[in-house]
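Incident log, support desk, overnight shift.

02:14 A customer reports that sequence design results differ from what the structure should imply. Their input is reproduced verbatim below. On-call engineer (initials T.W.) acknowledged and began investigating.
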């Protein structure tokens, strides 16, 4: 697994996941349940990860869409 993006914005996270899904890349949201601990204040970023072999293509898709990656 490789992390390709970090965000505290759930709308952006959804958008990034949709971009990658359209490209046929499966995504995994790490830290998705941290909001239960933080009280939903959005202080901790969620990490968007892809399989190691999909990382170069995922970064290319995100870059093409004008989205910065980590």
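02:41 Re-run completed on a clean worker. Output:
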């Amino acid at each position: 697994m490789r992390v390709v993006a970090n965000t505290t914005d759930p709308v952006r996270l959804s958008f990034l996941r949709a971009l990658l899904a359209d490209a046929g890349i499966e995504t995994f949201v790490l830290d998705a349940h941290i909001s239960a601990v933080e009280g939903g204040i959005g202080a901790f970023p969620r990490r968007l990860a892809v399989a190691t072999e999909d990382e170069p293509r995922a970064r290319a898709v995100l870059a093409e869409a004008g989205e910065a990656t980590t």
